[in-house]
Amino acid sequence: MEMSNYDSQMEFPHDFRCPISMEIMKDPVIISTGVTYERKNIEKWFFSYKKKTCPATMQRLENLDVTPNNTLKRLILAWENGLSPSSSCSPSSSPLSSFKHDEMVSILKTLNSTPFKVSSLKKLKEIVENGDEMKLDFMLLGGLEVVVQLIIQILADSADFMVFRACEEALGVLQHLPILQESNGKVVDILSKPEFMKAMVIVLQRGSKEARVYAMLTLRKLAKLDFNWNVVLNDQGVGMFKSMLELASDEISTKVSSSTLQVLIKILDSSKESRSKAIEAGAMCTLIELLPDSNRSKCEKILLIIKLLCECTNGKMAFIEHGLGIGAVSSKLFNVSEIASKICIQIFLLICCFHDPSNKVLEDMLIYGVVKKLVILMHMSGPSSTKNKMVDMFKTHCKSWSRYPCFPSELKEYLGLRQV
């Protein structure tokens, strides 16, 4: 019996063993480097031996938090059930059947050399769709590296139709993996490579509708990382933004539209250069036209992007030249949410602080009720830096506005501008 147990232990995958004790893990936990350990062993390393490094990589740790690796725990239990002679579960009924495992191994080994990559990837996607155990088995077998390498090949030969199709199908496999859901440093390193990001942008520009959606959802996950977007902006910035704006306008899939806007916020917040390229791609026009029919969440995101663009001189010009920008933003002031109203005010302050806003701009702010709404806000709100900026704005443009009959007569006295 002891020999039988030893043989079963030897058949366990190396990743089921704790890197410290080399024993099968019962309570696996992940640390910040992405390595999984048996809880009692890593806690002893941290708190008994007073170590602040990862035992496997010797990387210094910023924090000592541990997260239960429930997926790996389920996989170990499933494997144990398949190997145990006393188990009522046969190997064929196990979530991680030997047949599916062997099939996955075979596909991954031949994927780079086979001329039938698309059909192989479709089969691979069917396998990983079978549950968490199969997804983790795919990761343990190095499947992520193989699939990502296929996607990157598009950079070398994007004109080859079959290479492009294989890349699109590989993206479909990625959508079924729990990437970036756990603190896995290895996964982060693989997916944040510049080559992978450039491949995503090519698919975003030239792929099928489904592949473009896959690319966008992948970028949404990667947007959580501290990634240098200049890697893709320098070469493909304008084209990338045009493709993203098309997806942001998608009225069928709110998830895709929302994800696209979230990624746009992340990119535009990273640099002023990115905002210039987005403006060149026609972002301001698209966003202003999307604003009137947007729901609360989408509206807040669009307004935030408009505000980021208006922080650039060419962004202010694009907003002013559109003609409907002031009316569209004014309609959302006080009518969506407190967050949206604050952003609307910031947009108008940016426009009015422009070197020389035209009479048309000041006139539109009166016609669309912006001035009236801001006066009400000044009466209602207490002292704040925003209120001070609004007072300065009125002092600067009161002379132009006071010529119109709809200008509030009591505003002069409120501002102490009786001579104006």
UniProtKB/TrEMBL annotation:
Keyword Transferase (UniProt): yes
E.C. number: 2.3.2.27
Catalyzed reactions: S-ubiquitinyl-[E2 ubiquitin-conjugating enzyme]-L-cysteine + [acceptor protein]-L-lysine = [E2 ubiquitin-conjugating enzyme]-L-cysteine + N(6)-ubiquitinyl-[acceptor protein]-L-lysine
Pfam family, one: ARM_PUB
InterPro entries hit by this protein: ARM-like (IPR011989), ARM-type_fold (IPR016024), ARM_PUB (IPR058678), PUB22/23/24-like (IPR045185), RING-Ubox_PUB (IPR045210), Ubox_domain (IPR003613), Znf_RING/FYVE/PHD (IPR013083)
Keyword Transferase (UniProt): yes
Span of domain U-box: 11-86
Any single GO BP term: protein ubiquitination
One GO MF term: ubiquitin protein ligase activity
Pathway: Protein modification; protein ubiquitination
Highest taxon listed in the record's lineage: Eukaryota
Swiss-Prot/TrEMBL keywords: Transferase, Ubl conjugation pathway
PROSITE patterns in the record: U_BOX
Function: Functions as an E3 ubiquitin ligase.
Name used for this protein in its record: U-box domain-containing protein
Species of provenance: Tagetes erecta
Highest classification ranks of the organism: Eukaryota, Viridiplantae, Streptophyta, Embryophyta, Tracheophyta
